[in-house]
């Protein structure tokens, strides 16, 4: 499996990052998680054809995760997509996506792909969807609006987890158990809202993952934050926009600490 970090920034971030969005790819299939910015552009940068998107998962309703939904559907249509596109998310995220798209007059857009909406129940271990390449499950996390973290398993045996936006919470530990890679937000310590890099490292340690990638990074984070996180979980790195991360069924070589200063 390959995790494409299409964006790694918070709702406000520096000029090198756009909002956090991910694509998971396996056996020429891929799906998108969140679309707060121009997801079609970032998919193309990753050499993934937006018209071949298997599904869209919206982790929650906030603008930096949903506001690009209408643009993504428009671009997919203009690029030739005609097949329906499944869209999964908590009920509130689905409602926001429908409302945003419904604001546009699309009745004359001949061939516009149907959006097939599927509500994710707010319960632990819910099956989101399953294909011949992926099995995706979810659990609620700790954020001011209904939000789900994800566990992604492939038929090849690769396992990854994504925290979504959340304060430190045991649900992410459970999602990440046995995973090779945990992608975790690191906005900063804010109880009930967001987690710090240090707290993400504690979660990675407790889950027993091989690697931790930090995303949802706001301005002001420094290498000191990374040093602190690595003192708890050594195999921690900042995620970067455009980064492609290979996830094997068992990580043969954990990520070595980087000697250079890491750009933010």
Automatic annotation (TrEMBL):
InterPro entries: Metallo-B-lactamas, RibonucZ/Hydroxyglut_hydro
GO molecular function: 3'-tRNA processing endoribonuclease activity
Residues in coiled coil: none
The protein, known as: Metallo-beta-lactamase domain-containing protein
Pfam families for this protein: Lactamase_B_2
Organism lineage: Bacteria, Pseudomonadati, Rhodothermota, Rhodothermia, Rhodothermales
Domain of life: Bacteria
Every Metallo-beta-lactamase domain range: 31-217
């Amino acid at each position: 499996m390959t995790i494409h970090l299409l964006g790694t920034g918070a709702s406000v971030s520096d000029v090198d990052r756009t909002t956090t969005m991910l694509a998971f790819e396996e056996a020429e299939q891929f799906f998108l998680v969140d679309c707060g910015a121009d997801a079609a552009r970032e998919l193309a940068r990753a050499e993934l054809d937006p018209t071949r998107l298997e599904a869209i998962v919206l982790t929650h309703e906030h603008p930096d995760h949903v506001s690009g939904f209408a643009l993504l559907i428009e671009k997919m249509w203009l690029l030739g997509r005609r097949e329906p596109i499944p869209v999964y998310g908590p009920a509130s995220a689905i409602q926001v996506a429908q409302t945003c798209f419904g604001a546009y007059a699309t009745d004359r857009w001949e061939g516009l792909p149907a959006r097939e909406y599927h509500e994710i129940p707010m319960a632990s271990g819910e099956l989101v969807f399953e294909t011949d390449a992926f099995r995706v499950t979810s659990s609620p996390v700790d954020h001011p609006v209904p939000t789900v973290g994800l566990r992604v398993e492939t038929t090849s045996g690769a396992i990854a987890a994504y925290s979504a936006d959340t304060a430190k919470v045991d649900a992410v530990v459970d999602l990440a158990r046995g995973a090779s890679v945990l992608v975790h937000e690191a906005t900063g310590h804010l109880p009930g809202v967001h987690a710090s890099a240090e707290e993400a490292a504690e979660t990675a340690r407790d889950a027993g993952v091989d690697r931790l990638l930090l995303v949802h990074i706001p301005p002001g984070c420094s290498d000191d934050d990374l040093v602190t996180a690595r003192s708890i979980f050594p195999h921690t790195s900042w995620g970067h926009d455009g980064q492609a991360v290979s996830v094997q069924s068992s990580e043969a070589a954990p990520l070595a600490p980087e000697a250079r200063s890491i750009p933010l």
